[in-house]
Design a protein that fits this description.
Elements: H1 5-14, H2 20-35, H3 42-56, H4 61-71, H5 79-86, H6 90-99, H7 105-114, H8 117-123, H9 131-140, H10 143-150, H11 159-168, H12 173-180, H13 187-193, H14 199-209, H15 214-228, H16 239-251, H17 257-265, H18 269-280, H19 284-292, H20 296-306, H21 310-320, H22 327-340, H23 343-365
Helix pairs in contact: 1-2, 2-3, 3-5, 4-6, 6-8, 7-9, 8-10, 9-11, 10-12, 13-14, 15-23, 16-18, 17-18, 17-21, 18-19, 20-21, 20-22, 20-23, 21-22
């Protein structure tokens, strides 16, 4: 059953009124007519859409915002009107972008590709954000917008989008924390964050590693190998010489945990890194990053997993902090953390880092 034809024609005639007050009455009257019924026929819906869309563009912001709030929850909301409101300023567009049930994926994509950060953030709050839309938001969003998207468990994130977010999080503790708290983040990407995260976030990553199912771990390793194969860094100029010298040490039976301290003490950095990577079964670039950045907590994981004695790790810490006036006190503090680190957690975590070495081995064999 259709709405009263006389009423509709009366409202349409009012569309020609010049008075802004009368036009506001017209807009509200049409909206009331639309909401007064649970369903409308195609012809009636087209008429509503045409007139409401036209009038909404001629009303002041407060009236458009009121209309947006009323129509957002309607699954049968007129498509043309929804699209017009979605491209309006954010006070108007917000309700339909955040909860508009009549917005198609294509409608959302169009807004995401053409509008600013406020519009992107509003879309990021939807109960469900399709991965195609999330991809665009990840590409265009700033830190504030991406924080909203990451915090929304209803947002589907493709593997590519998650990788880009991890890359974007390199210098953003805010994004790092959001990603670590996102339970759907693949565990290999979770562990990439470890090297750029602050201490409290690293603790969260280690806690997650302790709960990973072995099958999930293996699947993550395979995904990570493919990603890391394309991200290998340049080797230092003396790498080949250092590698040959370490191989000679191993042939003479001189390569062991204790020889590492002598190499580090003698400032034979590249040789130390080659030896450490071989004894701890991690790749050279991971070891290099840890030492260059003085990542003593990350070094503790390597040493714990490799079975090095606590005293050896403490020696490494002191040598790496030699220019720090408070080196001994800091070394003792990290030594305590080393002692408290569960072996199982260290071994689980190191498996993610070892996939860098495995990737290098695969490349060399090829």
């Amino acid at each position: 059953m259709s709405a009263d034809p006389a009423r509709l024609h009366e409202l349409i005639e009012l569309a020609h009124e010049g008075s802004s007050e009368r036009r506001r009455d017209l807009l509200r009257g049409l909206t009331d007519a639309f909401f007064g019924r649970e369903s409308h026929g195609p012809a009636e819906m087209a008429l509503f859409d045409q007139v409401l869309t036209q009038l909404s563009g001629e009303m002041e912001v407060a009236v458009r915002a009121e209309l947006s709030g009323r129509i957002a929850e309607r699954p049968d909301a007129p498509g043309g009107l929804m699209r017009r409101l979605a491209h309006d300023e954010i006070s108007v567009a917000g309700p339909v972008l955040r909860q508009g049930r009549g917005m198609s994926d294509e409608d959302l994509l169009n807004v995401a590709r053409t509008q600013g950060q406020d519009h992107l953030a509003a879309i990021s709050q939807r109960a469900h954000v399709p991965s195609s839309v999330s991809d665009v938001i990840v590409e265009r969003g700033d830190e504030d917008t991406l924080s909203v998207l990451i915090g929304n468990n209803g947002a589907d994130l493709s593997r590519q989008a998650q990788e880009r977010l991890v890359d974007r999080a390199t210098e953003s503790p805010r994004l790092q924390e959001g990603l670590v708290n996102r339970r759907s983040l693949p565990v290999d990407l979770l562990n990439e964050i470890y090297f750029v995260a602050e201490a409290r976030i690293r603790e969260q990553i280690l806690a997650r590693n302790a709960t990973i199912d072995p099958k999930e771990l293996e699947a993550a390793l395979e995904r990570g190998r493919k990603r890391l194969a394309a991200r290998d860094g340049a080797l230092p100029a003396d790498y080949a010489k250092a590698e040959a010298e370490v191989a000679a040490m191993a042939a003479r039976g001189e390569l062991g945990p204790r020889s590492l301290a002598a190499l580090l003490r003698g400032r034979q950095t590249t040789k130390f890194l080659v030896a450490l990577s071989q004894l701890a079964h991690v790749d050279f670039h991971t070891a290099r990053r840890i030492v260059e950045r003085r990542e003593l907590d990350a070094l503790s994981i390597i040493c714990k997993a490799a079975g090095f004695e606590p005293s050896l790790y403490l020696t490494f810490a002191v040598l790496m902090l030699d220019s720090d006036p408070d080196a001994m006190a800091k070394a003792r503090q990290y030594g305590q953390l080393y002692n408290e680190l569960p072996l199982e957690v260290a071994q689980r975590t190191i498996r993610f880092w070892r996939m860098r070495r495995q990737t290098g081995d695969i490349s060399a064999a090829a």
